[in-house]
Amino acid sequence: MTATLQPIAAVSTGLRTGADFLAELKASKRTVYLDGALVGDPTTHPAFREGAKQIANLFDFAADPQNRELMTYEVPETGARALRCYQIPKTVDDLRLKRLASEGWAEQTFGLMGRSPDHVANFFAGYAAKPSVFAKHGQQWADNVVKFYEYARDNHLYIAYAIVPPQIDRSKPAHKQADPQLYAGVVREVEGGIIVSGGQQLATGGVYADYLHLACIHPLQPGDENHAINVAIPMDAQGLKLYSRRPFAKTADNSFDYPLSTRFDEADCFVVLDEVFVPWEHVFIYRNVELSRDQWWLTPSHTYGNHQAQTRYATKLRFLMGLAKRMNEATGNEAVPPVQVAMGELAALASIVEGMLLAQEAKATIDDEGVVWPSKAMLYAVMALQSEINPRMIDIVREITGAAMITLPSSVKDFESPETAPDVERFYRSAHLDARQRVALMRLAWDFIGTEFGNRHQQYEKFYGGASFIVKTNMFRNYDFKRAGALVDRALSLPPVGSD
Ligand SMILES: Cc1cc2nc3c(=O)[nH]c(=O)nc-3n(C[C@H](O)[C@H](O)[C@H](O)COP(=O)(O)OP(=O)(O)OC[C@H]3O[C@@H](n4cnc5c(N)ncnc54)[C@H](O)[C@@H]3O)c2cc1C
C-alpha cells in the first residue's frame, strides 16, 4: 500500500489553463471502467475527450486576462489570484460576484454541465468559512479542512463528490447492510491515515476531476460511525475505481444530429473504493455522526454549492427560453395567441428561478464570524419546486412545438446524398431558415429534451440536490413559521369589534 497523494504544493501564482488541465488529466493514471474495460486516457477516449475539452475551455475562460475580474479574486492571505468559486464571501456583494463568475462558466456550457469545477469548490469554501464547526470536535479536523481548502484554492483544483450511499437496501442503515463494507466507510486505521472501502454514488465529473470528495449527506445514526467520514482522495489513488454510466457518445455519432450529447456529457460515475489509503491530513470528519450532519447545515457549504447550482440552472432555463423562441420563429407561430400564453408561462417560471437566485442574495445574512450566508429559505424554496418546475417547462416546449423535433431527416447524411438532398432541402426548410438551419435548430432542441442526454438532464434536475421530499424538509426547517404564526396570533387577539 502506497500513498498516491501529491504533497501540498506551493502556492501557484499563475491561473490554470485548459492545456494545463488536459496535460494533468492525461498524466493522471485514474481507474475508469467502461464496458468492462479500462478507459485509459480520458483526453483521447471517444466517450470522454469532448467533455474534457469543455472543462479545459472553462479553465481557459477563467485564465483569459479579459475575464480576470469576473472569474477570479485576489486571495487576501497570498496576494495571488484564485477562482471566485473558492472565495469566502464577507459581503453580499462578494456573493453577487461569485454568482456572476458561476454564470460566466455556466454560459460556456449553456448550463448543461452541472458539476463544473465551481460546484464542489463552493462546498469547500463553505467548510473553510466555518472551521469552528469542525474544531468543536477536535482542532485537527478544522486545520485539515482549511489546509485542504487552501491547497485546492491555490492550485485551482477540480473536485467531484460522491455523498450519497448506494441504493442497495435503503430499508436498513449503513452498518446493518449484509456486508458492512458495502457502503463507503472507514475499514481500519493504519500508520499515517485510514483505509476506506465500499461504494458511493454518484461522482458526476469524476472522470475529469482532480480529487474525489467522499462524504455522506444521508442521515446517519448511532452504529453508522464508520460511514460518518469526510475525506479528499486524488482521483488516481490506488484502489479508487470509477464506473461510468453509459456515455452518450456511444449513440451520438455526429455533432450535427447530437449537438449537445457529443459535447456536454459530464460522465456520472459510481465510485468503488477498494482499500484506499487516505492520509490523516485529508481526513476532515472521522467516525462522527454529529459532525457528518452539521457539515451541511452549520456551515454554508450546502448553500454556496447550491447557489452555484441555481446560477447554472437559471442559465440553462435562459437557453431553454431561447430555444422555444427560435422554434416558434422557425414555425411561424410567434403571433399565435395560445403560443404567446404558453411562452408567457414559460417565461414566468424561468423568471421565478432567476428571481429566487437574486432573493438568496437580497435576503443573505452575515453571521457572528463575518461570513455571508445566502438565504436558506429562498434557496430551498426554489430547489424544492425544481422537480415540478422543470418537467412542466419541458412539457410546455413539447406542447408548443408539436412534431417539429420529430419530423426531421434520419441524419445529416440525408443532406449529403444526391438522391435525398433535393427533397430534404425543399421540404424541411421554414419560411426564414433553409433546411440545414432549421434541422440544426430542431436537433438542438431534441437533444436538450428528448434524447438520452436530454432525459438524463431531467433526472439530474430532479435529483442533483437530493430527492424533493428531502429538499422540502429543508424548506420546512428554514421557513419563518414564527413570524407567520405571530400574525395569526395577533388576528386571534384582536379586540372584539365595537369594544372601543
Ligand atoms: C444525473 C445525476 C447526477 C448526480 N450527481 C451527483 C454527484 O455529482 N454527487 C453526488 O453525491 N450525488 C449525485 N447524484 C445523486 C443524487 O445526489 C441522488 O440521486 C439524490 O441525493 C437522491 O438520492 P437517491 O437517488 O438515492 O434517491 P432516494 O433518496 O432514494 O429517493 C428516490 C425516491 O424514493 C422515494 N423515497 C425514498 N425515501 C423516501 C422517504 N423517506 N420518504 C418519502 N419518499 C421517499 C421518493 O419518491 C424519492 O423521490 C446525482 C444524481 C443524478 C440523477
Automatic annotation (TrEMBL):
Residues that bind FAD: Q167, I168, D169, R170, T204
Record flagged with keyword Metal-binding: no
Alphabetized UniProt keyword annotations: FAD, Flavoprotein, Oxidoreductase
Single GO MF annotation: oxidoreductase activity, acting on the CH-CH group of donors
Classification via InterPro entries: Acyl-CoA_Oxase/DH_mid-dom_sf, AcylCo_DH-like_C, AcylCoA_DH/oxidase_NM_dom_sf, HpaB/PvcC/4-BUDH, HpaB/PvcC/4-BUDH_C, HpaB/PvcC/4-BUDH_N
Pfam families, per the entry: HpaB, HpaB_N
Location of the HpaB/PvcC/4-BUDH N-terminal domain: 17-285
HpaB/PvcC/4-BUDH C-terminal domain span: 293-492
Entry annotated with the keyword Flavoprotein: yes
Alphabetized PANTHER family for the sequence: 4-HYDROXYPHENYLACETATE 3-MONOOXYGENASE-RELATED
Name recorded for this polypeptide: 4-hydroxyphenylacetate 3-hydroxylase
Organism the protein comes from: Xanthobacter tagetidis
